[in-house]
Amino acid sequence: MKHFLHLFILLLFVSCDKNISKTNNNSIFLTKHVNAFIGTGGHGHTYPGATVPFGMLQVTPVNGVSSWDWCSGYHYSDSLVVGFSHLALSGTGIGDLADVLIIPVNKAVDLTVMPKGRDSITYKSTYSHDNETSEPGYYQLFLKDHNVNVELTAGLRSATHKYTYKPNDIQSVVLDLGFAINWDKATSSGIQVEDDFTVSGYRYSTGWAKNQKVFFVAKFSKPIMKYDLTADKIKVDSISNAKKSVAQLFFDETTGNKLYIKVALSSVSVANAIENLGEVNFDFDSVKTEANKTWNSVLGKIKVETKIDSLKTMFYTAMYHAQLAPVTFSDKNGQFRKQTDSLVSASNYTAYSTLSLWDTFRAEHPLLTFLAPNKVSDMVNTMLEYYKDKNILPVWTLYGNETNTMTGYHSIPVIVEAYLKGIKGFSAEEAYNAMKTTMMQDERGLEFYKNYGYIPYNLLDESVTITLEYAYNDWCVAQMAKALGKTEDYELFLKRSEAYKYLFDTKTGFMRGKFEDGKSWNEPFDPKYSNHREHTDYTEGNAWQHSWFVPHAVEDLAEMHGGNEKFTAKLEQLFTESSEITGSNVSADISGLIGQYAHGNEPSHHIAYMFNHAEKPWRTQYWVREILDTQYNTTPNGLSGNEDCGQMSAWFVMSSIGLYPLNPASTVYEIGSPIFDKTTMQLPNGKVFTIVAENVSADNIYIQSATLNGKDFNTTSVSHETILNGGELKFVMGNQPNKSWGLTKNTQE
C-alpha cells in the first residue's frame, strides 16, 4: 500500500509537471519563434534591441557608423559598439535618433577628447555575435573590452538595464548626449546629478527631425560614488546648454558585481520622464517577463500551423516587426510636444509618432485594423492633432516633427480605411474636413495637380509618382464623402481620381512624364532608367515599377492597356524582364528584384495581386508564392529591402495567410496563395476567422477550389466585414492551376 501511494504521488507529480511545462511553453511559445536579427543585415535596417509593442523606447546597441545600412544604429556586419541608445528607427531609409547613449565601462576614460570617428571614441568596445542574444522585449551583449555583460529590457515608456561586471573591476557608466558619430547634430544638452542615485537631463538636436527635444531621467540601483562631467571638451561641475554633454559615473564595486538602471524619456520635461519611470523597476527579470508576456499576447492574435519551422520563424518575426511602429509618443499624463514646441495633452487617446505613412498605409495599417483597432483610432486622432499645425495632414512624422519625406498624403487612406471598417473613437466630420482641406491646398505639387489635372514633369520632379498617388488619395476622399452623404464632393474627388489617364502612354504601355502643354512626353524615354529624387519622373524607381499604381481602378487600367490579355502580358513582362537598371544615380531603394518588380521597395507591393482583376488569379498565386519564397528568409539578410516601419513584414504576414489589401481603403482583401495549413485569427470582436489550406506545400501553390463557411466560394476577394463575422475560409491546393476558379466577380466590392 505504501509503495502504491508513492507510485501514485510520483504519477501525480509527473502529470502536474507536464501540465506546468505545457503552460510555461504556451506562455513563451510564440515569442520563441521570433528572430529579431532578421533584417539587421543587408538593407533591412532593423534593430535587435528591447522594446514592447508600439513602445516609446527602443533600447538597443549603437555601432556608431553613419552610412546607409546603419540607419537603425546597428548592422549585423559590425563588431564594435559605442553604447546603448533609447530611441531607434526600424527599417527606415534615413537615419536619426540613437538618443541618450549609455555604456558600462571598467576604467576611467578621457571624455575631453572629441572623437573624429568611432575608432577614437574612448569608451567603445568590441563584441561577438556568439555572445549576443535578442528576443522580444530583451537584448543581451557582452562587451569584450570592458568585461561587462549588458542586458536590456523595456516597458511602454521606460527601460531597465542590467550590467554584470567582473568581480573587483571598476564599475562605471558613460552617459553621452553629444555623440559625435551620429545622424543628427546636438544643438543643446544638459546633465544634472540630482541625488546619489539619480541623473537627469535633456538633449535638443536637429537632423531628420528638425526640432527634436528629449528629456530623460536615469535612476541607479547603487549610489553614485563620484562623477566627471564634460561639456564641449571641458571638465565642469554641472552641464547646461552645451553642444556635447558627457558624464562618467562611478559606483562601489565592493557591493556586488551587478548594477541596474531604470531610464525613462519624455518629449516634454524631466518631470514627465520621472512620472514615466514608474512603469518599470529594478527587478529586471519581472520587467523582462512582463515584456515577453505582452509580446506573446499580441503575436497570438494570429496563430499559424505548419510543420516547417522556418515559416513560423518568418511569420512571427514579421508579426513582431509589424508592431514596432508607430511608437507611443504621449507621456503617462497624456502630454507630448509638437514641432512648434507647443505642448498638447492627448485626451482619451494615446499619441503616436514614427508615422512612415508612404510605406505603412499599404499593408501594415490594414493589418492593425485586425490586431489593434483601438490603436488605429488613436493614430487617427494623433494625425488630426498634427494637422492643426498647418491645416495639412501628416506625411512622415518623426518625434512629433513633420519631415515631408516621400510623396502623397497617405494619412488619408489610413483614415478612410479605419472609418469604412467601422473603427470608432474619432470624429468623422473632423477627419473628413482635414482630408478635404489637405487635398485642396497648394503645397507639394497640389497647385499644379489642380490646375492641369496632373503634374507636368517640367514643373516638379517625381511628377508621375506624385500624380498617381494624389489620384489615389482623391479616390479615398471621394469614398469618405460618399459615406457621409457629401455628393458634390464625392463627384469632385472621384473625377480628380482619374488623373492617371493623363499620364498613360498607349504606345509604350507606361505611365510617363507629360509636359504642361498636355501633349508632349518627357523624352528620351527608357522604362528602366532611374535617377534618385532629382531630374526624374519617378520616386525611388523607374517606369516599370511605378506604372501600376492605380489600385482604385485596376479594371480601367487593364482596358487602357487594351484588355485583360495585353494587360496580363505586360504584368508578366514586369516579372520576367531583365533586372538591369540604367542610369548613373540609381536609387539604392530598388532592391529585391524579380525581373523589374522590386519587392525591396513599397511601390511594387500590390502588383502581383492585379492578375486577380484581369481573370488570371492563378498568376497572382504563382507570383505571390515566388515573392514569399525568394524575398524573405531567416538570416540577418532576410529582408530584401528596408523594413520601413513594418510594411515589408506586414506584406509577409498578410500574403502568407492568403490575403492582401491591394486597395486598403476598399476594405476588401485579395486572395493569393496561403502557405500555412491553418491560420486562426482572433478578431477584435471576440470572433474567430480560420483559413485552411488543404494539401498546401512548396509545390501545391494553386487554389483548386474553396468554400466559405461550407458554401462554394469562387471569387478572388473577401471583405473585411465578412472576416469580422467569423467563420472558415477553406482552400484545396494543388500543383497545377485551376483556371476556372476565382472568375466570379465579388459583389462585396
TrEMBL record:
Residues 273-735 form the Glycosyl hydrolase family domain. Gene3D superfamilies: 2.70.98.10, alpha-1,2-mannosidase, alpha-1,2-mannosidases domains, GH92 mannosidase domain. Keywords: Calcium. GO terms for cellular component: cytosol. Residues 33-266 form the Glycosyl hydrolase family 92 N-terminal domain. Its cofactor is Ca(2+). The keyword Calcium applies. Transmembrane segments: none annotated. The keyword Calcium applies. One of its GO terms (molecular function) is peptide-N4-(N-acetyl-beta-glucosaminyl)asparagine amidase activity. InterPro entries: 6-hairpin_glycosidase_sf, GH-type_carb-bd, GH92_a_mannosidase_put, GH92_N, Glyco_hydro_92, PNGase. One of its GO terms (biological process) is carbohydrate metabolic process. Monomer. NCBIfam families: aman2_put (TIGR01180). This is Alpha-mannosidase. It comes from Neotamlana sedimentorum.
